Amino acid sequence: MPQGEPLTVEDLDTIEGLLSAVDDPLALASYLTEAAEQGLVTDQTETGRVLALAAKSYEQAGDLERAEASANAAIVADSAWQAPDRCVALAFRAGLLLRTGRETDGLAELEALRPLMISDPMVVSAVTEALVTSGRLVLAEQWVSTALRMLLPQPTRKRPTEELWHPDNALETIAIFTLAQHRRTLRFDLDQPRDAYDELADLLHDEIHKGLGEEAADECPFCEVDDDWDDADQDGTAILFWPEVEFGRLAARWPRLAEAYGGTWDGHRAQLQRALTRLSGIGLTRLALISGAFDELERHTAELGDADPDVETCEDYVTQIEDTQREIPWPPERNAPCWCGARRKYKRCCLHRAQPDRGVSDEAGAG
Q1: pLDDT grade for 234, boundaries at 50, 70 and 90
Q2: Would you say 346 and 331 are in contact if contact means Cβ atoms under 8 Å apart?
Q3: What is the β-pairing status of strands 327-330 and 287-291?
Q4: What angle do CA 87, 132, 191 make, to 5 degrees?
Q5: Is the pTM higher than 0.90?
Q6: DSSP codes joined into one string, 108-123
Q7: More confident residue, 209 or 41
């Protein structure tokens, strides 16, 4: 993006998706801060988001003081900023306070958000992250356990997603899932013995992964089956996956095409995790991802004479990939490296990305 041009929502999606791979996060943070201060945002209701991205960039650069200043500005930037996003920013700031020795203030801010942990899965993740990144794993496990027991005094043992799911309490159901997964991870990290709630977390994961069948899929967002996948090859299905660097190049060259693949790096991974979960849910096995390469797609597009490739172009391209070494079997074991290449365990990375629709496209190529 040339200096001086307003940031669009698409620009922000791209920046958010590539945030963890930026070579100079300090320069990006300064750029975002300047854009917010000068009003160089096409949608002014996104000013808070610009500042929140700046805060994360400053944190990534190790400048916690300016990260906090940007987080403060993000919180008060725009009254139209949606409440869940605002709560996430508050939790992010609280985490910074804890990490910079202001425990009383940081914990007070998290305590204020704590009641929302029984109803808002975004707050669950944000509060947990703030506590974990500040080294308070024991407290995080206590808070998550308390919230889970408030929602579910006794763990259900049969078909938990069927028993818990109801359209009228969708967020509560999602919160139970999120709490259970975070709790299991925290207890594993703390070397605590498994209990009935850990078993519940496994059951929830397995049911969501396997799907509940078409009847439950009509209403349960975890289990929605996309009719587009019904004719998938039962002998093995590989979905086109753009690694982070390749996705960044794709988004820079063909933003419209990148939108079809999730819009952002996080969106792309969530899209693929949901698609693979759905394929598994309708009984398909031997699922995999196949890594795409921007240079190859560029050459393939030129050979076809396409000025602006679309998903169909990519579907044609993926059939040309013959290198089986680029296939990534799915799903990995929970404690194995994640399929996305982020150098994190699967259970801490893309395992939870099959949660309800976060507004990303579900149009992806399969080959």
Answers
A1: very low
A2: yes
A3: antiparallel
A4: 140
A5: no
A6: HHHHHHGGGGGT-HHH
A7: 41
